[in-house]
Amino acid sequence: MRTSLLLILLITALSCKQEKQLAMVTQGAVYEKYLETAKPGTDSKHFRLWNDKIKPDSMQLTSLGIAASYYGSYFQNTGDISFLKQSEQALKKAVSIAAVGKAGYERSLARTYISQHNFPEALRLAELAYKRGSGLSQSRNLLFDVHMELGNYELAEEYLDSIKDMSSFDYLIRLSKWNDHLGDLDSAIRFMELATKRAETARNRDLMIWSYTNLADFYGHAGRIADAYAHYLKALKIDPQNAYAKKGIAWIVFSYEKRPEEALRILERVEQNFNSPDIHLLKAEIYEYQNNEYARSKALKVYKELASQPEYGIMYHKSNILFRLYEENDTEGALKLAREEVENRPTPETYSLLAYTEFKRGNLDIALQIADEHVNGKTGEPEVLLQLAEIYKAAGRTAIVSDLRDELLSAIFELGPLSEAKIRQL
């Protein structure tokens, strides 16, 4: 009997060890080399050549376009918002003086506004570019993107149909996004995989990086964590400085492998070369998981200082709404921002923030009305579903909450470890 008991204990221990090993998908020895990269350059002889030609009264259209492109890439590489604003200024000047090729500059400026979450202005420029009749396919691509951001899904579908071409990278990535919007993640992944193959065949460096990181995100949503990790590594192999891929690996290490110390180490390395408010929000979340209130408060303070810079405009409205609700108990301030978000982009996601803010203000009836009319059944985003479940639980709608709870339990990786206890209490 004693031997049998020891055998059972040994088998159990080995089984637990094997499960722990199976949970580990990352290899520090592999991704470590990508954490040692030098600070990204924000200057070059070629950039200075074109940038120096730009004067307050400059009519150097080519110089403006090329300099704007450099500024945009510097923003992507460093997270420094000032570069994005400089790109905007150069493109605004180009739009104002261009006699030929104006539509191209309008599209570029519209994409800069998309990065800043200024979607109404992006739509205005996209429509201007479309009316000019130059580069119609690119304008249709852009109009699909903007209408998706604005929640104008019927119009977005019309533009998607107008660019249909299964051999086109541009069409495939938008078809993937459309299927993700519909809640068909398997199809979204399939079309993104096809688009990735197109980028690889063309050997287009930028498109390959973009495809790998987006495909990695989709794999993560689908619970295919090893595939997600592999594709973040693929992006880093091409661009060792890619901060987005490194943050993706840090999230896997934290949310899936439950190794907060290592996740923080990765983020601190990223932060040496790339700094944006969202990094400090993520660090605060990890510190909360560690019950380190001092470090959490410090990270949130840095987040607030960064996100409050005027250059960011409304880019962090969503995070600021939740920050005001949870950290500052400023429900009036949160409501003001939530209403601005709905006005700027009336999507199920922004309406969810408005409903949740009203819920936190004690206005359950108002929250329910907004949720029923604008949120429920219109999106499968886990963060939105969690907010919806909290509202419906308070209203006693147990059947809906039970369904949402089951769906949310499968999205814990995406929502993060802190969400699990909240979901199980629904």
Automatic annotation (TrEMBL):
<dbReference type="Pfam" id="PF13432">
    <property type="entry name" value="TPR_16"/>
</dbReference>
<dbReference type="InterPro" id="IPR011990">
    <property type="entry name" value="TPR-like_helical_dom_sf"/>
</dbReference>
<dbReference type="InterPro" id="IPR019734">
    <property type="entry name" value="TPR_rpt"/>
</dbReference>
<keyword id="KW-0677">Repeat</keyword>
<feature type="repeat" description="TPR">
    <location>
        <begin position="209"/>
        <end position="242"/>
    </location>
</feature>
<dbReference type="Pfam" id="PF14559">
    <property type="entry name" value="TPR_19"/>
</dbReference>
<keyword id="KW-0802">TPR repeat</keyword>
<protein>
    <submittedName>
        <fullName>Tetratricopeptide repeat protein</fullName>
    </submittedName>
</protein>
<dbReference type="InterPro" id="IPR051012">
    <property type="entry name" value="CellSynth/LPSAsmb/PSIAsmb"/>
</dbReference>
